[in-house]
Amino acid sequence: MVRYSNERKASILNKLLPPSNKSVAEVAKEEGVSAQTLYNWRSKVKESGLPVPGKSPTTQQWSADAKLAVVIETAGMSASERSQYCREKGLYVEQVNEWREQCLGGFQSSREHAQAAKKQAKSDRAEIKHLKKDLRIKEKALAETAALLVLRKKLNALWGEEDEEC
Fold first, then answer.
1. How far is CA 84 from CA 72, 77, 90, in A?
2. Which of 12, 22, 49, 158 is the most exposed, having the fewest neighbouring CB atoms within 10 Å of its CB?
3. Domain total of the chain
4. Closest CA to 66 of 42, 82, 37
5. Backbone phi, then psi, for 34, in 5-degree steps?
6. Which residue, 106, 132, 155, sits at the end of a domain?
7. Same domain, 119 and 78
8. Integer angstrom CA distances of residue 129 from 2, 65, 121, 139
C-alpha cells in the first residue's frame, strides 16, 4: 500500500478545485492514484469543513457547507488577502461577499422576518388599492366611450348617413 504525504494529497486535491475543476477520473489517471482513494480523500476534506466541490464544476452549484466554509475562512482576512484567496480558489470576491450576505440573512430572527413581511404586505395592499382605483376610472372612461360610439351610430342611422371612419 502506497503512502502519500499530506503535501502530495493537497496538491492532488487542488486539481479538483477551481480553476482546473478536473474530474476525479481525470486526476486519478494523471496522478496514478485510484479514483476511490481520491473520493476518500475528498470526503475527509469535506468532513473537516474545507470547501471542496462535489460533482459540480461551478461554484454556484457548491453545497451550502462549502460556501459557509469559504465565508468562515475569509471572515478575518483583509481585502488583499481575500482577493489572493479567491484567486487561488478560482472564486470572485463578489461571490464570497454574496455568500456572506446570504449567511447573515439566514441569521435574521423570525421577528425581523415577520416585520419585513408585514411591511411588504402593507405596501402591497396600498399598491393594490391604487391600481384598483385606476382600473375603475379606466373602466368608466371605456364605458363612456363605448356609449358615445353607440349613440353616434344610432344618430347616423336616424339621419340616414353612412358611418364615417375615425
1. 16, 10, 10
2. 158
3. 2
4. 42
5. -70, 150
6. 106
7. no
8. 74, 44, 12, 15
**Placement of cell 336616424 in the chain:** 158
Q: How many CB atoms lie within 10 A of CB 51?
A: 22
89 shares its domain with 122: no
Amino acid found at 39:
Y
Same structural domain, 77 and 17? yes
Q: From 87, 106, 125, give the residue that closes a domain.
A: 106
pLDDT in tens, 57-89: 566 667 777 788 888 888 888 989 888 888 877
Q: Say yes or no: 96 and 30 in one domain.
A: yes
123-152: pLDDT as tens digits: 999 999 999 999 999 999 999 999 999 999
Domain of residue 152 covers 110-166
- Asked if residue 24 and residue 96 are part of one domain, the reply reads yes
Please work out, in degrees rounded to the nearest 5, the angle formed at the alpha carbon of residue 59 by the alpha carbons of 58 and 60. Answer: 90
The CA-atom distances, in angstroms, between 133 and each of 122, 129, 139 are 17, 6, 10
Which grid cell sits at 74? Answer: 475569509
Smallest CA-to-CA distance from 38 within 21, 47, 26 is with 26
